[in-house]
Amino acid sequence: ESGLYVVATPIGNLGDISQRALAVLAAADLIAAEDTRHSARLLQHFSIDTPMQAYHDHSDQRALSKVLDCLAAGGVVALVSDAGTPLISDPGYRLVRQVQDLGHAVYPVPGACAAIAALSASGLPTDRFLFEGFLPAKAGARASRLQALAAESATLVFYEAPHRVAETLEAMITCLGGEREALLARELTKTFETLHRAPLVELSRFVAADSNQQRGEIVLAVAGRRGREEVVAPEVAQLLRRLAQELP
Ligand code: SAM
């Protein structure tokens, strides 16, 4: 069936690729890949020799035309990113919109996603969750985002770069309070897979004490607000406590 197939690939363990993903990748006329050199290794492993085209959301018109021409000719295009599910903190949104607007079909081929994998083994509530992707890298913008999330009762899920995980945990303690339970999920499906759940203060100590915990690929999840906590900014909360002490 002609159309754009959004194909999830493994987040580490190659055994996580689905039979359908392999079939689609092998049968496609073109694979649009975030990074062709990266995806070449995956395709080689499974002896797939479908032609590839580099595609990301800032690609030029030429790259886009190649994909659209293939679809216009009744072909099958598979979209892959470096790891996991395309469009989830990965390129593809612009392409999916454009392809749909031109009247072509878009089919999901589901599979691995680091956020969902972490959540499923987190031990945190999963009935409601909010995927936040990457927090802003700058301290001010990151604190604003966390403060905006402080009242949220759903479990919060973040992607984080290893060199920022220690300071992000510190910022979370400041903005969300240190008692909230949180999860560090590192190197999921890989050799050094680690899942560690603890209150934010303890998790922060665990990470600070062992530089190995600041390596590799990381998902952070934090329990949502339980109701008792202060929703006001930390400085305001401190001020209120001081005022309360002064009152007769
Ligand atoms: N599209 C991908 C997905 O479906 O999970 C996510 C792409 S995003 C650019 C990459 C981030 O995902 C990493 O920085 C890390 O936060 C998270 N991630 C990817 N693979 C992971 C793994 N094996 N273990 C833990 N986190 C992972």
UniProtKB/TrEMBL annotation:
InterPro entries: 4pyrrol_Mease (IPR000878), 4pyrrol_Methylase_sf (IPR035996), 4pyrrole_Mease_sub1 (IPR014777), 4pyrrole_Mease_sub2 (IPR014776), rRNA_ssu_MeTfrase_I (IPR008189), RsmI_HTH (IPR053910), SAM_MeTrfase_RsmI_CS (IPR018063). It is found in: Cytoplasm. GO terms for molecular function: rRNA (cytosine-2'-O-)-methyltransferase activity. Transmembrane segments: none annotated. Signal peptide: none annotated. Its main location: cytoplasm. It is an enzyme of class 2 (transferase). Its EC number is 2.1.1.198. PROSITE patterns: RSMI. It holds the Pfam family TP_methylase. Keywords: Cytoplasm, Methyltransferase, rRNA processing, S-adenosyl-L-methionine, Transferase. Catalyzes the 2'-O-methylation of the ribose of cytidine 1402 (C1402) in 16S rRNA. HAMAP family: 16SrRNA_methyltr_I (MF_01877). This is Ribosomal RNA small subunit methyltransferase I.
